[in-house]
């Protein structure tokens, strides 16, 4: 393990020439450099964010949904049947004609009745519009708040206006409290997303989103450890700039405000294109492989959103 750790944290990869990890351990009085141990704060904070999310969805998002006449609908449930339930959970949720004929004979049911049972059972597992609205409202609120905080912080930072400041004196750049809080909060949020993904609404892009969260957590963590937090803060802000617009469009869609949904989706598409496909490559620096993963997924989602819109 020691050899693996030494190989992974090789100073020639992470740090400039003639700089060692030891050089960053003893900063001048009143100056704080990033340390890997700082990131452990994100884990309890991620748990706190998850708890806040549960309370937010229950006591804020859910009443808002009801006020918009988005109720927790209960569709028709499939009648209990041990044989069909076993097939549904362990074999297939969409039986073909061979399975349907076999089940029809086994239960002495008409094929159409078996088909109806499977349809009701599939619909039973689908999340309600109320649930999807609450999830989107939570993400909208967080993305909007963190983007507002990040933008206000960066507005006062010289590297927002001149990216060369990201590298002046690198890696001997002091970690300010504002930058630290921004970084750790973002890291904690993505940790919470990665874990809650297993309890949230199951989506078709589950694997892609899991890889995205894992890559994001790795990118934030590694960029913090080797003190690339300045350029990292720009990347984070660029990512957050369009996310809250997408969630707002989803909320409008769930509330059946179609014109508002279309408008917000157009604004989101423009913001997404500018921030992810134009500005984002400017921040394309180290961690090339992690950033490439993000780039490929951004192109994929851009094409997907355009196809859905047209």
Number of domains: 2
Helix content bin: 55-70%
Proportion of residues in extended strands:
under 5%
Span between termini = 53 Å
Radius of gyration: 24 Å
Oligomeric nature of the chains: single chain
Q: Which outline best applies?
A: elongated
The sequence of SSEs as H and E is: HHHHHHHHHHHHH
| Low-confidence residue ranges | none
Question: Class by helix and strand content?
Answer: mainly alpha
How many individual β-strands? 0
Helix tally equals: 13
User: Sheet bearing the most strands, described?
Assistant: none
Q: How would you state the average pLDDT, rounded?
A: 86
Provide a descriptive summary of the structure in words:
The protein has two domains: 45-69 and 129-308, no CATH class; 82-125, Arc Repressor Mutant, subunit A (Orthogonal Bundle). It has 310 residues and is mainly alpha-helical. The chain is elongated and about 80 Å long. The mean pLDDT is 86. It is built from 13 helices and no strands. It has helices at 2-8, 11-14, 42-67, 82-90, 97-107, 111-125, 129-155, 158-161, 177-196, 206-225, 229-254, 258-279, 288-309. Helix content is 69%, strand content 0%.
Short description:
It is found in: Endoplasmic reticulum membrane; Nucleus. This protein has 310 residues and is an all-alpha fold.
Features:
Arc Repressor Mutant, subunit A, 310 residues, 69% helix, mainly alpha
SSE inventory with pairings:
Layout lengths: L1 H7 L2 H4 L27 H26 L14 H9 L6 H11 L3 H15 L3 H27 L2 H4 L15 H20 L9 H20 L3 H26 L3 H22 L8 H22 L1
Helix pairs in contact: 3-7, 3-9, 5-6, 7-9, 7-11, 9-10, 9-11, 10-13, 11-12, 12-13
Subcellular location: Endoplasmic reticulum membrane; Nucleus
Pfam families: Homeodomain, TRAM_LAG1_CLN8
Catalytic activity: sphinganine + octadecanoyl-CoA = N-(octadecanoyl)-sphinganine + CoA + H(+)
